[in-house]
Amino acid sequence: MPIYRAYVIELHDRPLGVVQIDCVDDGSATNSAASLVDRRNVELWQMDRPVARFDARSKQTFKK
Known about the structure:
The protein has one domain (3-63). 14% of the residues lie in helices and 50% in strands. The protein has one helix and five strands; from the N terminus they run ββαβββ. It starts with a strand and ends with a strand. A five-stranded antiparallel beta sheet has the order 2-1-3-4-5, covered by helices on one side. The longest helix is centred in the middle third of the chain and has 9 residues, at 26-34. It is mainly beta. The radius of gyration is 11 Å and the shape is globular. It has one helix at residues 26-34, and strands at 3-9, 15-22, 41-46, 49-55, 60-63.
């Protein structure tokens, strides 16, 4: 099962924290990471591959 990391991003695009997510594919990892979005942006990565970025203000998801 692939391991994903969701980075909670603070001002100036600095990581504030990281959550490890074990999911079978990008779709399920994206759904799990979306639940972490509150007032801060979240970036989802699998190893060194960016998967998605979630913008807290606009509530949009940007697939990479």
